[in-house]
Amino acid sequence: MDGFDPRWRDPPEYILGITKDIWEDRGIDTLLKYYGEDLVVRSPASIVQGNEGIIAATMATLAEFPDRQLFGEDVIWSEVEGAETYSFLSSHRLICTATHTGFGAYGPATGRKLYYRIIADCFCAENAVKDEWLVRDQSAIARQMGLDPRQWTQDLIAREGGPDLCVKPFNPSTDIAGPYQGHGNSSEWGDQLEDTISQLMSADFSAIAQRYDRAAELHYPGAQSGHGHAFADRFWLGLRSSFPSAEFAVHHKMGQQTTGLPPRAALRWSLTGTHSGNGLFGAPTGAQVHVMGITHAEFGPFGVRREWTLIDETAIWKQILLQTG
C-alpha cells in the first residue's frame, strides 16, 4: 500500500482502522488527514463536498449518540488498475449501535437504542478517501425511535425550513464529478450479482428461486431480516412495483475471493423514474424519484446464501413529498 500509513497492512485494515480512529477513538480531527479536502460524499439524502461539513456532522452525531459504535462486517475491495499511484475502491458494510442520550436531530434524549447498517463505497488514494457513495438505513433509525419514516421525513422537511429551503435529496443532475471514474473489477461473482439484480429489475422474479439458496439469509431496509425465497420476493417485488418504468442502472460492481471467506460481491445501482405503481411507497403519486442502492452478497453451492441490500427509504419519501406536498 505505497503512499498509505504503514500501520495498515491492506485496504480492509485501512478502512476499518480509520473508521475506528474517527468515530470511536474520537479523532474527529483526523478527518483533515483521512478525508480529501475536495472529497465528494454522495448519499441518497444529499451531496456534500469538502470535509468541513463532514466534521460538523460527525460532531453533531456523536453529541446526540455519544456511545455510537461502528462494527465493520466486511470490506469488499479492488485495486484501481493502471493508476499512477496505489489506489483502491472499497465497499464497507457496517453495523452501527448507539443510544439516544443527547439532544440533536431527533430532539431531546429518549434513551432509545439503535441498531442499523451503513454501506459506504470509498475511493482511496494517497492515504485519504477521495470519493464516496454512502447509503444509511435511515428508516431503521426512524422506526427504532418510534417514528413512521414518512411522517419523520415530513417533519424533517419542516425542520429544515420547508420545501424551498430544505436539504434536497441526491439525484444525478446534482452530482459532482470526482476523481474515481472506475466501474470495478472483472470477477465471475460480480457478474453473477449483476445478472441476478438485473433479472429482478427486469421483472423476472423467478430469478429468486433460480439464483438464491432456499435458506438464504437476507437483510433489507428498515432493519428487516429474514430467510428464504418469499422474503426476498417481498422486498424486490415491492420495490420494483413502486417504480415499474424506472430506468435501472449498474454503476459499480466488484467480486472477491478471500481465503477463509465465501465468494462475495458488491454492486452499486440505481433506479431513476416515476413513482407510478403500488408497492413499498403506497399509492402511485407520479413523483420523479432517484433510488441509490448498494447490495452485498455471499455465494454458496446453491447460489446467493446471504444478501444485504440498502436503500434510504426516507430519501425516497422526501422526493415524493417535495413533489406532492
What can be said about this structure in brief?
This protein is an alpha+beta fold. The protein has helices at about 10-25, 30-35, 50-65, 140-145, 150-160, 190-200, 205-210, 230-240, 315-325; strands at about 35-45, 45-50, 70-80, 85-100, 115-125, 130-135, 210-220, 225, 245-255, 265-275, 290-300, 305-310.
What does this molecule look like?
With about 325 residues, the protein is α+β, with helices and mostly antiparallel strands. About 30% of the residues lie in helices and about 35% in strands. It contains nine helices and twelve strands. The strands form two sheets. Strands 2-1-6-5-4-3 form a six-stranded mixed beta sheet. A hairpin with a 2-residue loop joins strand 5 (about 115-125) and strand 6. Helix 5 (about 150-160) packs across helix 9. The longest helix has 14 residues, at about 10-25. The radius of gyration is 19 Å and the shape is globular. The chain starts with 10 loop residues before the first helix and ends with a helix. The model has no long low-confidence stretch (mean pLDDT about 95).
Name a few traits of the molecule.
six-stranded mixed sheet; 35% strand; single chain; globular; 325 residues; alpha+beta
C-alpha-based Rg, rounded: 19 Å
Percent of residues in beta strands:
35-45%
Relative helix content? 25-40%
Extended strand count: 12
Number of helical runs?
A: 9
Q: Helix- and strand-based class?
A: alpha+beta
* Order of helical and strand elements: HHEEHEEEEHHHHEEHEEEEH
What is the topology, as strand order, of the major beta sheet? 2-1-6-5-4-3
End-to-end separation: 50 Å
Low-confidence stretches: none
Gross morphology is globular
Mean pLDDT: 95
**Main sheet attributes: strand count, strand direction, barrel closure:** 6 strands, mixed
